[in-house]
Amino acid sequence: xxxxxxxxxxxxxxxxxxxxxxxxxxxxxxxxxxxxxxxxxxxxxxxxxxxxxxxxxxxxxxxxxxxxxxxxxxxxxxxxxxxxxxxxxxxxxxxxxxxxxxxxxxxxxxxxxxxxxxxxxxxxxxxxxxxxxxxxxxxxxxxxxxxxxxxxxxxxxxxxxxxxxxxxxxxxxxxxxxxxxxxxxxxxxxxxxxxxxxxxxxxxxxxxxxxxxxxxxxxxxxxxxxxxxxxxxxxxxxxxxxxxxxxxxxxxxxxxxxxxxxxxxxxxxxxxxxxxxxxxxxxxxxxxxxxxxxxxxxxxxxxxxxxxxxxxxxxxxxxxxxxxxxxxxxxxxxxxxxxxxxxxxxxxxxxxxxxxxxxxxxxxxxxxxxxxxxxxxxxxxxxxxxxxxxxxxxxxxxxxxxxxxxxxxxxxxxxxxxxxxxxxxxxxxxxxxxxxxxxxxxxxxxxxxxxxxxxxxxxxxxxxxxxxxxxxxxxxxxxxxxxxxxxxxxxxx
Length: 493
What we know:
Blueprint: H1 4-8, H2 18-33, H3 40-56, H4 58-69, H5 73-99, E1 102-104, E2 113-121, E3 124-128, H6 136-147, E4 151-155, H7 161-174, E5 180-182, H8 187-194, E6 200-204, H9 207-218, E7 224-227, E8 233-236, H10 242-254, E9 267-271, H11 275-290, H12 306-317, E10 325-327, E11 331-332, E12 337-338, E13 341-344, H13 351-354, E14 361-367, H14 372-378, E15 385-389, H15 393-402, E16 407-410, E17 431-432, H16 438-443, E18 445-453, H17 468-479, H18 482-489
Parallel strand pairs: 3-4, 3-6, 4-5, 6-7, 8-9, 8-15, 9-14, 13-14, 15-16
Antiparallel strand pairs: 1-2, 2-18, 7-17, 10-13, 11-12
């Protein structure tokens, strides 16, 4: 836990410019080069402190999430606090194993020798977080960075100001501020940070900013993890349990921050014949979950900020979907509320079908045959997640084999995030790199190849002057042919 003096100095100065960012990274690099962050004891102590922080500050965290997003306490706990606790506990349980060198096989050409792969921390890393899950998407990557033994700077989103302020306060209080820093601010502060040399940058957000991050990283050949998004489809077959399917889609769309989740269902594909049945069930569950007046439901989050509200309103007001809104559509700018909305057969060139929605609007696309849905998905950029509801083994196999996405879930949505043995990340425009569980540790580690040899077994054949006999022997060694080695040693060609 940080001392009082460390806490006072843990946050960024009032004016955080390029010079301040440079001083910050130099300080952290000194800490890292001194070896402080590399020990198991330091790593485990910081993870334990994070767990204590979550236990001590649960109400403050829930209050901040409500202030920023009107996020219900149930969602705040399950989707943010509990997931961070789980990540901490997994890391603490498995950390010693993760840190152990991994034995590797050698070949005849290096005999006698042994080899191993040693995970080592990258150094000083930057985590730039998002506003929609401002605790989870800030702290979860930091857990991986700490577990791997790095010094780390966290830049929370300024669009979730209550959580940004709270994270600066809490991480300053509970963690080692000589190695872990929080920098608050907006574009200017982020730009100052991106001008520095990092050993890795981990960014969660949208593709537009990701391109800026990647361009800045390229100047120093800094590797990046980009956790982005995309239009995650839900393909719904007719041979399903309709009640369960409908509940899971409604919960996964509107019960996860009112659609403001990178893995939330973006649009549904189903057959023209089955669409009316599915729509009726979705409407039924929307009323059941959020009441006849969802704009006043305490169980649904508000839109994150003014600009995002305006963007979603623009999607709704597009002339190309006029008359296609079959449920919801109500908006209230003063409270930043948008009701759960279903749109049927929006044109492919409409705004709502051209960009990630990231909100409470759900288009339904109809096709003649359910198999046509796979072709529709593959005609668009690769999504962060893809979902299928079916009892058909053949369709499951076709979906998994033919749909390229960051992750796939069959007969549910979003739950793959909870499985720490699965990597979470995108592909193509939905991102690069992955984390969660050991994948978080690996994301912030370098796997160093180490080969051990003694002074015995030094083959003269490897050194000049080169002769035909030496060439025959080395060819046999490199081919791994014991018979060829024997022939070469006895002078046979």
